[in-house]
């Protein structure tokens, strides 16, 4: 751990002796994973796979998939992504060397993948062989007035199961390949985003389990893995008892949970929340430090209801609050198993977790 030497390193060793909660990192590149490990992360708590889709070629493949005519068209469009995703996950598993890695299936707002302007439609028509008029009509059907409250997260996985199938296959193929090559078998934790109902999770968990069995049969081996869900909508927190029937872990997505509970856009909040905090209307910025009195109650409720259904339910937090000391103290009190923060906040999180345990 070259970054944590000298007195700071010693302090960290002391802190770790007293810490109950594990500390993981939010990371989606091998480099971020490496930094996270150097700072002492004990796993990846959130790999946002949509961050692997900034490349124009990948956006185009997903675009072709969502605008395709039928299942065969969707599968053809996705075929080129499978080896790319497999290699993405393989390099993350390699760096994390047997530590748990939570991979969240795709969660973009759909509009990020829709074509805009005549040139993009013309290009797409050429690649897919579908007419521009057809593509425009299909894109019109998928247009949303409020994409952040629309067709994203698991809803996308229900409408276009092929994309989650491709990702699940890439995860399990990569995990088997890494396990065959090294002694450190990866422990993939497949996470479904934006779940609001048990049924959504039931459908998608069945999909992931089916793909896992297919891959294990092809590879002639099995691996330990988990399927779980984000808890990032108030309904999911309320219905956590039911949702836990389908989940072996919950990860609290407190960014969206704060946004949806307060009815405040996380992207525009600063404009009016700063004066709000100055005037004491909110005691702290709720997007930085968990609104313990409000949103925190949903977290507590979901933890309690989830564990009533499934006593061993693994609980973590992967919203920005997972790197905030006051929120970490709350997580300790609530009995979470781990916090997950951006790699550079891992040392702070280790200290805060130790302080919370001692407290
Ligand atoms: C969250 O909503 O808290 C979360 C971790 O997911 P994202 O920030 O990617 O929406
Ligand atoms: Mg979210």
TrEMBL record:
Positions of Mg(2+) binding: 232, 256
Protein family (similarity comment): Belongs to the PEP-utilizing enzyme family.
Biological function: Catalyzes the reversible phosphorylation of pyruvate and phosphate.
Catalytic residues (positions): 318 (proton donor)
Domain PEP-utilising enzyme C-terminal: 5-356
Lineage: Bacteria, Pseudomonadati, Pseudomonadota, Alphaproteobacteria, Sphingomonadales
Top-level taxon of origin: Bacteria
Name listed for the protein in its UniProt record: Pyruvate, phosphate dikinase
Binding-site positions, substrate: 48, 104, 232, 253-256
